[in-house]
Amino acid sequence: MALPKLKKDGLVASPSAFQGFLDALDVVGSWEWDVGRDSLVADALVATLFSVDPDRAEAGTPLREFVSGIHVDDRKRVTRQIGQCARVGGSYVAEYRVCSADGQIRWVLARGRFDLAASGEPLRGRGIIIDITPARMSEEAYVSSDMFAAAHPLERAAERCLAAKKAVSEVGDTHLQLLADMLLLEVGRRLAKLEDQSRRKLMN
């Protein structure tokens, strides 16, 4: 499923128009980071949420461009968490704010995983970003990296879905691509719902 491009010089200031654009992309975006080359490739949704030019994100751009899109009050915590995960490998889950391309503050749920080289150095990272702004509009910020067990089945499913989506794109079958996108979207929605339930339980 091809994602529409949103050029920075064509942004619409209206939040409702921007929300319509995000809705057209669904709510789940994906990214992959080649640590050695410092080249992060992301789809249009992730680029738009982090206020990065979609063409640059598609071609691969340094991580710092996406870090700049994280809200200043969350940036240090999030980069520290991602850095720790990159050093030791494994997965992380984080909830934080981003400054999206329309100038609005939006909430995202991020799930990522890092692989290490045989030498023990960080090799690559990949993951998904879920726009959870509607669920957070009337709530106070609450973040916990321990909301999911590291081996939760939905996390493993999301990782497999990303791998399947990448493999299917190489086949070029549009019907299979649509099915892979639909499955990834549904798994992402379930992850967001699970996170919301876990957060509410911890707040009560």
Describe it for me?
It is a single chain. With 204 residues, the chain is α+β, with helices and mostly antiparallel strands. The protein has a single domain (11-203), classed as Beta-Lactamase (2-Layer Sandwich). 48% of the residues lie in helices and 21% in strands. It has eight helices and five strands. The protein has helices at residues 15-24, 44-49, 54-59, 63-67, 72-88, 133-136, 153-171, 174-203, and strands at 28-34, 39-42, 90-99, 105-116, 122-131. It has a five-stranded antiparallel β-sheet with strand order 2-1-5-4-3, sandwiched between helices. The longest helix is centred in the last third of the chain and has 30 residues, at 174-203. The protein is globular, with a radius of gyration of 16 Å. It starts with 14 loop residues before the first helix and ends with a helix. Its EC number is 2.7.13.3. One of its GO terms (molecular function) is protein histidine kinase activity. Residues 92-144 form the PAC domain. It is an enzyme of class 2 (transferase). It comes from Methylobacterium oxalidis.
Low-pLDDT residue spans: 1-14, 21-26, 140-150
CATH architecture: 2-Layer Sandwich
Structural class: alpha+beta
Share of helical residues:
40-55%
Strand order of the largest sheet: 2-1-5-4-3
Instruction: Provide the number of structural domains.
Output: 1
- The proportion of strand residues reads 15-25%
Specify the number of helices: 8
What average pLDDT do the residues reach?
77
What name does the CATH topology carry?
Answer: Beta-Lactamase
Cα gyration radius (Å): 16 Å
